[in-house]
Amino acid sequence: MTKVEYKHTEIAVKKKFGQNFLTDRNICRKIVQSAEIGKNDRILEIGPGFGALTSAILEASPKSFTAVEKDRALAAFIHKEFPSVKVIEGDFLTIDIPGLSADGPLKIMGNIPYSITSPILFKLLDNRKYIVSETLMMQHEVAQRLAAKPNTKEYGILAVQLQTFCEVSYLFKVSRKVFRPKPDVDSAVVNIIPRTSSLDENENAFRRFVRTAFSQRRKTLQNNLKKNYDLSKVTSVDLTRRAESLSIDDFSSLFREINSLAG
Fold this sequence. Notes:
Elements: E1 3-6, E2 9-12, E3 21-22, H1 25-35, E4 42-46, H2 52-58, E5 64-69, H3 72-81, E6 86-89, H4 97-100, E7 106-111, H5 117-126, E8 131-139, H6 140-146, H7 157-165, E9 166-174, E10 179-180, E11 187-194, H8 203-213, H9 221-225, H10 248-262
Parallel strand pairs: 4-5, 4-7, 5-6, 7-8
Antiparallel strand pairs: 1-2, 3-10, 8-11, 9-11
Helix pairs in contact: 1-2
């Protein structure tokens, strides 16, 4: 069993929690600078671990700072090491974001576990009206998929669903060498800023539509959509194209047209 020791606290690394601890202070400061934290900001950090990023965030003196840590020993460590930080011991996927934002919207920070990156991203997407921004480190491949452009192999459901409702920016790559234990892949930091979309009221239907459009990547839109949608009067997009060739605006236009025809 791999163990990591920091300031006289030893942790047995739990693979089920996806624990890889960031150790480079310069990277932490760079992440904080990217988040543009102000003194009136309310910060929510996901999985602080041994607090490398936590320490850098505190240097920016945010108004409010909450950290969510699932590992009991690490939660106790953060509580003792950083007494000004409110520590919630628990699973981020079950926490009440609206409740935490009762006094104002949140800036989300964190080095998020590879194994639950997508569930975390979609929880944040579902709660975006309570969020100012997200500055997150994740597996490099996932970061590429989030910020992907049409006609690339990375462009798919994740890119379209997030970019429709948020501004997504790939910021910088982070070497696997700055983690303990060292993961098998590199990481990257992305910035996500929620925005108002004309599709907000039909979000669930739009997200189903996108999943259907990409259900078989090598097939045309016509073939992927025809079982679930009436395409007989569609004019906004050439349905012989593949989903990966459509821009975010193309997807929005096609969905709105199909939705209006169905109504």
